[in-house]
UniProtKB/TrEMBL annotation:
<comment type="pathway">
    <text>Sphingolipid metabolism.</text>
</comment>
<comment type="pathway">
    <text>Lipid metabolism; sphingolipid metabolism.</text>
</comment>
<feature type="domain" description="TLC">
    <location>
        <begin position="1"/>
        <end position="92"/>
    </location>
</feature>
<dbReference type="GO" id="GO:0050291">
    <property type="term" value="F:sphingosine N-acyltransferase activity"/>
</dbReference>
<feature type="region of interest" description="Disordered">
    <location>
        <begin position="95"/>
        <end position="135"/>
    </location>
</feature>
<dbReference type="InterPro" id="IPR016439">
    <property type="entry name" value="Lag1/Lac1-like"/>
</dbReference>
<dbReference type="GO" id="GO:0016020">
    <property type="term" value="C:membrane"/>
</dbReference>
<feature type="transmembrane region" description="Helical">
    <location>
        <begin position="12"/>
        <end position="33"/>
    </location>
</feature>
<feature type="transmembrane region" description="Helical">
    <location>
        <begin position="64"/>
        <end position="84"/>
    </location>
</feature>
<dbReference type="InterPro" id="IPR006634">
    <property type="entry name" value="TLC-dom"/>
</dbReference>
<keyword id="KW-0472">Membrane</keyword>
<dbReference type="Pfam" id="PF03798">
    <property type="entry name" value="TRAM_LAG1_CLN8"/>
</dbReference>
<dbReference type="GO" id="GO:0046513">
    <property type="term" value="P:ceramide biosynthetic process"/>
</dbReference>
<keyword id="KW-1133">Transmembrane helix</keyword>
<protein>
    <recommendedName>
        <fullName>TLC domain-containing protein</fullName>
    </recommendedName>
</protein>
<feature type="compositionally biased region" description="Basic and acidic residues">
    <location>
        <begin position="99"/>
        <end position="122"/>
    </location>
</feature>
<keyword id="KW-0812">Transmembrane</keyword>
Amino acid sequence: MSNYCKYIKVSDLCFVLFAVVWIATRLIIYPYMVLYSVTIELPEYANNSGPHEQYYGNSFVMQLLKVMLGVLQILHIFWSILIARTAATKFTQGQLQDVRSDNENSEKEDESSHKHHTEDTSHMNGHIQRVKQIS
């Protein structure tokens, strides 16, 4: 939002805060708190408790949970690399271009309007405008 309002410093600050919080929570807290608890502490607790060992030991559900948490950690690493690349580009080359479109259907409308119609209705920031195209 601050990027569209031309508050570049606020936008940069929000991005830096986002990156720091993301890396702290996804690459530091998550593996050492959640993954460690599920893979190391939970089996030890189950072995000491006795009757609940069959639920936590080598059960299919527990192994599936560990695999899914590991895949999530791999995704966190991948997304963190993307965030770091974006930050490096931003702070070495200057301002980034926002490649997202203003309208979700703009690509579909552009393709179909160029092929079939001579007069098109284009949506721009919630307003409808009539546009004549020269064929």
